[in-house]
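Quick look at the format.
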Amino acid sequence: MDFIKSLVENKLLLIGNFVLTSGKISPYYLDLRRLSNYYEIFSDTVNKAIDKIKNIDFDMIIGIATGGIPFASFISCRMGKPLGYIRMEKKGYGTDKILEADVSGRKILLVDDVATTGGSLSKAVEIINSEGGRVVASLVIVDREEGAEKKLGEYGVKLISVYKIREILEYLLNSSLISDNDKNNIKEYLVKNIE
């Protein structure tokens, strides 16, 4: 799969021990913030994302800073939809806003790069809803399948992913791209963490 090969070749999928936003320790890390450095695969990923959401009824896109903003921006331009973004915490200067958009009365597509437990996504949903918007769906490039879909479901928000981590890792586990030791660490993590 070109996407997965590109992730590995460009060091966007890293193998090791990484602390995630959720606090979990993972034997792999997806650094999709840099995917836009590789236009061809980035553009292909955006096209696949658009294909996944083409039947969703929304009128504004909100990207989660920072990983979701490049994807949200390209999708917004290609689909002709207004764009805003949301931070996970106040910046402490300027207007000190968390949400940079007028979402009142709008149906929102929330966009991020990766979903793990759904903590950041659900926080964004709460903020957008409190500002009068309604998140109708959330799009991520990769769902790590560690609870985000269930968490968003509690808010009535559907999680849509371009890729599931299971398909990415299964490809890796059946390839010669990583060592046997790394394969074993990933298998162990999958058993313990993937829904």
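Next, a different chain entirely:
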Amino acid sequence: MMLSVNKQFSRHLRVIHACEKGATGVYWGHRWVAAWRYPDLVPALTAMHGHETEHYALFGQLLAVKNSPQVGLPILWCAGGILYGVVTALLGRRAIWKSTAIIEAIVEQELLAASEFFQAHDPQVSAAIEKILLDELQHKEQAQAQSLGWATIDAYIEPMAVAGAQLSKNLAEKL
């Protein structure tokens, strides 16, 4: 069944908004563990957390301006992100970076799809997405540079990241 333009509009904004809230939790969880295990990572993770917080606020404003409802209980996305962030960070420094690289690649694809939709329907939202995409690409590239090659832990991180992102998106579409 094809969704109306208004429903697609709202769906894209809700998914991005909810997932940005989840990202704030992921970086919070990563920072919490890094503070006692990898203190040298805290400044970079703090900057990334700040970007995600800004993105969440921006999409909240866009939802309000466009009269689109937010997802119910956004704290669920944050809590899920914190749990995921803590678990992956406990798996090690590489897991933090690999997790970030994978999640940011997923976010990149979601934002590109949304940007394509909004280019045709709302240039203001498309421009906001393009700006946010720059931050997300920077996060991905920084994380990829810190997790080059392959390690055994990668086999566990990717399925967790993909499953978490898909669950987050599915819930955002329904709640």
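The radius of gyration is 16 Å.

See the schema section for token definitions.
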